[in-house]
Amino acid sequence: MSPDTLTARLASHVIDTPWDALPPAAVLAAKHMALDTLAVAWAGTCAPGIPPVREAIIDEGGKPQSAVWATHAKIPARSAAFLNSAAAAALDFDGMRASERGSVHSDSVVLPAALAVAEQHGATGRELVAALVLGNDIVTRLGAASALPHRGWYQTSIYGIMGAAAAAARLMKLDAEQTMHAFGIAVNQACSTQLPNIERSLVKRYSSAFAAQGGVLAALLAARGITAARQAFEGRFGFYELYQPGEPDRLLEGLGVSYPHVETGVKRFPSCACNHTAIEAALHLSREQPVPPSEIAELEVTISPYVHRLVGAPFDPSSDPQVAAQFSVQYSVAAAMLRGRFGVGDIEPEAVLDPAALELARRVAVHVDEAWGNSRAATVVVRTRAGQRRERHVAHIPGSREAPLAEADRREKALDCLRAGIRPLGAEQAQRLVGRVLGLDGLADAGELLKDLA
């Protein structure tokens, strides 16, 4: 293996970086991300599309290696990574790092893969945390180094499988050569486009799951001696040529020194992040001076071309109400104006199909400002029948690095989510799990994380 290739340098970084070289901020961020991901997954265990697949995969059986979160079941590690990742993505409430170059939800792929492998191999909590730091580092670096324009791949999946493979390789104690092959094997499985987002179908919540499962499989095959392309990213017909162009210098900038996952944001709303500035703007308008829906003459929202591509299509909840709501700026604005909030209850099918919400959503006019490019900003305008005009512009996604949530708000979100799902935790159990996650690097056995909580 040439130590100078891009793929080789990433593989060496994943395997050879010692625990003591990981900055405390990167370790703390990984634990905070794990808490948020695990919590939203707990709440997502009963989301539409999750229970029937979980039942089918548990029914298939297999070696009891890793836990299915919020259940008593243990199944093969790859299957556990798949199911737990799907639950983590289901409510679109998982953390993300957004930039002009794109957005990635790294931990909803990396944590399910890493925890499943950690349980399988009896890893310590510190070994799991190191895998989380390095796996999330790979995903967020790839996202930050993405070159425009976007080709339509779902970046969480195509980058996430690389992070899952990295985390699994670290936990399986592969060497750098094997890890390079794991990246090559992952390229052969990378998948998922933005089409499910645009068409608002349930398979969207499995896009991250395919990546989590594929990353575990990539490391498993590499551990068994399966070879693959040695230049997975930069080679001819490699990742950058066929999937999404990237900037190698940017990818490697600060490697081993800076860890971009520390800038991952915690979502305030259970919805595609492209809706969040519009929701925030509508909530400000609703709270500043509530207007009964009957008195609203016009509602307008202005968004960028990038945001419009993902959430600007006409609102049609007839097929999958929850997914339609999560990917509709019209519904987002209408629900926020109507109810003065936007929480998990507002994406439940009965809330989405509320006649008042449907009627108001149909009256939301969507405008695209071509000059905004990939901006996530939004402007919401409300005109009343009495002739008043009020406007609110929100530039940054709530919970992003530009507008971070307070620690108390992040903790309360986690506790609320842990009290939901197919097996809601009591207050004492939820607090115990929070403490275990934040103290994960002190656990002698990572498998103890979920003990007595299912």
Automatic annotation (TrEMBL):
A Pfam family annotated for this UniProt entry: MmgE_PrpD_C
A molecular function (GO) term: lyase activity
Q: Where is the MmgE/PrpD C-terminal domain?
A: 269-423
Q: Which SUPFAM superfamilies match?
A: 2-methylcitrate dehydratase PrpD (SSF103378)
Chain ranges passing through the membrane: none
Give start and end of each MmgE/PrpD N-terminal domain.
9-247
Query: What protein name is recorded for this chain?
Result: 2-methylcitrate dehydratase PrpD
Q: Which organism is it from?
A: Pigmentiphaga kullae
